[in-house]
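Write out this protein's structure.
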Amino acid sequence: MARLKLRVTRSRISTLRRGPGAREAALREFDPEGDDASLWESIPDPSTDVLEEIWQRGWEQNIIQAALRRIRVKVSAQQLLIFEMAALREVPLNQVARMLEFNLMQVYLARHRVGKLFKAEVGSLRVTVS
């Protein structure tokens, strides 16, 4: 039954898109008090999805920045820079090593050590907020 209603709704939407004459005919068929009303109301508003996505992205950035502030006091500036470039900005490790004049092993080690601290801080922040 729900599939039939969905098919009818899709058909009416495509009719609305065809032109002005078809639009009036489709609107006359729509009964806001009938079964179509609940189906119409169940269609999600696309603008809320966009706002939710923007809010979620901002929230994630806030958690990342807070975690970086917390680990900044626990590691050296060089290690933090390596981690930010390699993990957050996704610069290839050999390029990070070349740019900062470290050997590749130092870059791997710094990314791993700071990454563990970062992951723990992000987890801690998410639990605190929940």
